[in-house]
């Protein structure tokens, strides 16, 4: 039977652990909640009525949403709806993202942030915004280019991941890195790179989308370690800046997320947890902060393995930049 001193020691150890966990949760859990399900998996909180009579707010044209015919609902999100629409005169197809006036205030702030960034960007590797509309009642609509396949997440699930060979992933990585390099050059940090936020079309053109939690770095040394984005793809320093933030660089968080994205597409499941296990905050924190950095299984090329290692350095200062990764041998493979 254990002695009293051993029992006391065990009790004190557990007490310390639980106190520490409580402190961590108090500091972070309110901001670390997992993101809500993707729009295709969630019913809207408000009636998905087609938008009407919205006026354009980005240029002097008289274009309005009345000029577009709704083809179908692509999905519902937190306080909004995404439609596939066709311009009545030209038959051009677009995606129309509508956020309702009575949606959650956080969602409203995110849509205004996304509008600001989309107005600033012009890259073939970032989803293009054609128009922004607003009506007096407060509904906001963003008219964007339509990517006919959907997201890399939906493509992976619909094809059981078999389409993502090393060669295909090299092309995917190259396009995402071109997009990140453009954003980072313009002092924009995405902060939520993941398969569900990367749009793809039938030509396998990949574009970065969803800037709701992104940040524009107005000052060179401005901090960017807030707990936003999807927890599963957060870098260690964003979970625990005290331990991993000594060489903190906000842009490198996007590179960690890219590495996890490439791993997930290749492996067919989220790489930090066993296949089929749903991520929760505690499991993710332990895996990202205390576990070994994830790696590829046996049988992959040295170039691919090296590329993943350059992305998933736990010390953010050792991660390669988007510009450096574009010159990595894995990304320099011939496209065909």
TrEMBL record:
Protein keywords: ATP-binding, Kinase, Nucleotide-binding, Phosphoprotein, Serine/threonine-protein kinase, Signal, Transferase
Question: What processes does the entry annotate via GO biological process terms?
Answer: response to other organism; response to stress
Q: Where does the Protein kinase domain start and stop, copy by copy?
A: 68-331
Record-listed E.C. numbers: 2.7.12.2
Q: Which Gene3D superfamilies match?
A: Phosphorylase Kinase, domain 1 (3.30.200.20), Transferase(Phosphotransferase) domain 1 (1.10.510.10)
* SUPFAM superfamilies, alphabetized: Protein kinase-like (PK-like)
The leader peptide range reads 1-22
Q: What class of enzyme is it?
A: transferase
Instruction: Please tell me whether the keyword ATP-binding is annotated for this protein.
Output: yes
Reaction(s) the record says it catalyses? L-tyrosyl-[protein] + ATP = O-phospho-L-tyrosyl-[protein] + ADP + H(+); L-threonyl-[protein] + ATP = O-phospho-L-threonyl-[protein] + ADP + H(+); L-seryl-[protein] + ATP = O-phospho-L-seryl-[protein] + ADP + H(+)
* Family, per entry: Belongs to the protein kinase superfamily. STE Ser/Thr protein kinase family. MAP kinase kinase subfamily.
**What is the protein named?**
mitogen-activated protein kinase kinase
Say which species the protein is native to.
Answer: Tagetes erecta (African marigold)
């Amino acid at each position: 039977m254990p002695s009293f001193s051993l029992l006391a020691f065990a009790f004190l150890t557990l007490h310390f652990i639980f106190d520490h966990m409580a402190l961590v949760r108090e500091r972070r859990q309110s901001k670390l909640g997992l993101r809500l399900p993707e729009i295709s998996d969630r019913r809207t909180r408000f009636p998905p009525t087609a938008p009407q009579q919205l006026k354009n707010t980005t240029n002097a044209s008289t274009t309005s949403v009345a000029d577009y015919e709704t083809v179908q609902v692509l999905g519902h999100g937190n306080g909004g709806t995404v439609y596939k629409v066709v311009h009545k005169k030209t038959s051009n197809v677009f995606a129309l993202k509508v956020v309702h006036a009575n949606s959650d205030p956080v969602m409203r702030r995110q849509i205004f942030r996304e509008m600001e960034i989309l107005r600033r960007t012009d890259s073939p590797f970032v989803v293009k915004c054609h128009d922004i509309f607003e009506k007096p009642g407060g509904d906001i609509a963003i008219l964007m280019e339509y990517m006919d396949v959907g997201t890399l997440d939906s493509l992976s699930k619909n094809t059981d991941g078999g389409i993502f060979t090393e060669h295909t992933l090299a092309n995917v990585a190259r396009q995402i890195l071109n997009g990140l390099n453009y954003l980072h050059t313009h002092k924009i940090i995405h902060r939520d790179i993941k398969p569900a936020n990367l749009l793809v079309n039938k030509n396998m053109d990949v574009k970065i989308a969803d800037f709701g939690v992104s940040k524009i770095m107005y000052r060179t040394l401005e901090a960017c370690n807030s707990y936003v984005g999807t927890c599963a793809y957060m870098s260690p320093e964003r979970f625990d800046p005290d331990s991993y933030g000594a060489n903190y660089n906000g842009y490198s968080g996007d590179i960690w997320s890219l590495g996890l994205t490439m791993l997930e597409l290749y492996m067919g499941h989220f790489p930090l947890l066993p296949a089929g296990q749903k991520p929760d905050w505690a499991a993710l924190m332990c895996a990202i902060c205390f576990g070994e950095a994830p790696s590829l299984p046996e049988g992959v090329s040295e170039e691919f393995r090296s590329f993943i290692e350059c992305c998933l350095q736990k010390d953010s200062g050792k991660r390669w930049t988007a510009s450096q990764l574009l010159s990595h041998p894995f990304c320099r493979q011939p496209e065909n």
